[in-house]
Amino acid sequence: MEKPKILIVDDNEAFLELFLCLPQTGDFHITPATSAKHAVKILSSEPVDLIISDIQMPEMTGIQLFTTVQDLYPDIPVILITAFGSTEKAVRAVKNGAFHYFEKPIDDKLDLFWTTVREAVAKREMLKKITLLQKEKTFGLKTLTPVIGRSKEIKQVVQSIKEVAPLSVTVLISGETGTGKELVARSIHELSDRKSKPFFAVGCNEFSPGVLESELFGHEKGAFTGAVEQKKGLFEVAHESSLFLDEIVDASSRFQAKLLRVLESKRFTRVGGTLSLSSDFRIITATNRDIQADVAAGRFRQDLFFRINVYEIKIPPLRHRKEDIPLIADFYIRRFSQTYGRSITGLSESALESLMIYNWPGNVRELINVMERAVITCSESMITTKHLPFDTRAVADISDLNLKDLEKFYIELALKRTSQNKTRAAELLGISRKTLIDKVKKYKLGASPQLE
Ligand SMILES: Nc1ncnc2c1ncn2[C@@H]1O[C@H](COP(=O)(O)OP(=O)(O)OP(=O)(O)O)[C@@H](O)[C@H]1O
Ligand SMILES: [Mg+2]
Prior knowledge:
4 domains; binds adenosine-5'-triphosphate; Rossmann fold; 5-stranded parallel sheet; Helicase, Ruva Protein, domain 3; about 450 residues; about 45% helix; alpha/beta
């Protein structure tokens, strides 16, 4: 993922220099500006995720900058840094929507400072997502990508989506990274009678536990420092819609307990509040970890597991359903050719072989990235192995082989991939176990394949 972009504004160049030397700045892409005017100029030309600004500056103050940002870029959080004498202004700005303020010097509270910075950035990420989703909804800019594939595994996934969508039950989607969990969650929403409302998504690992809680439950004014106004949480906002809780295994035990109560009663209270609220949201959760192992290890509550696992959809990794590769590749080649104005007709045979041999640890997301790069670098009408990023030596060798050798090569590869498990290897190859055993005998295959 790209590093979040922070714009830091201070007329005191020595402060900027010191700031840029802080070790934590390595996690971000930081642009310094020595005046608020300069900052406004930068904002008009490049994307920014967070603004950290001094208050007292000549010409245009940090408060004026904050007001401008609120008008022009209301989704960019602003953290104000005050020197002696301007705290009152900072407090007022926070009341008006600034994310937080810190009094100089900040070096005695760096931990809190960086936690706040990360929370502001996480909030910005969520706002970006929500805005994007609402835009998609309002302008119908993007129709949902279909779940592509012809393997029996993906057909089963599609079948499950159709089956569960009209019901309001909680769904747990599991699968390795990039297998399409979020796509499946959205597809469920789109096929449900909640589809006229926007789909909401939040990653349980995106926020510190306190912030996650307030994002979902909302908070009352004065519930904690910085809670200057009452705020509705996503449980409330997602009324009659779907709420996707991604990476659910990462939720803290406190959050798990609170979530369990909400799921059981469909009622909740805002942080710092006493009013019991109810809302008709549908929860869809996802995890890329083996949640049962977390349950067994006591890291995830079993009772919550049962609650969220009313209906489970498991998405197998791409390497276990390689028949889907040509279809997905083709779909995205067409999509990217359109985006980048290319007239690419498809993949060469050896390029396709290369895609079929590769293991795809990043699953569909990785395949899409590889296709995008290939389309960008391809000026001919067909994508060949030279447009693919991984080692294609094995593929070059194959093009000299005959069909029998190719078969032998695939069988060896399948056995290697499955650690010599003949049942799984046969599944992978789409043949019966008996056929596989016959072929292993025929080719006198041992336990040591030569390629890969
Ligand atoms: N079967 C499929 N057909 C078409 N596109 C797919 C398919 N599966 C996944 N994708 C696309 O692959 C990309 C990654 O999918 P998604 O974000 O849903 O993965 P994920 O499982 O949520 O990954 P992570 O665990 O990393 O969050 C998305 O662009 C999605 O649209
Ligand atoms: Mg995801």
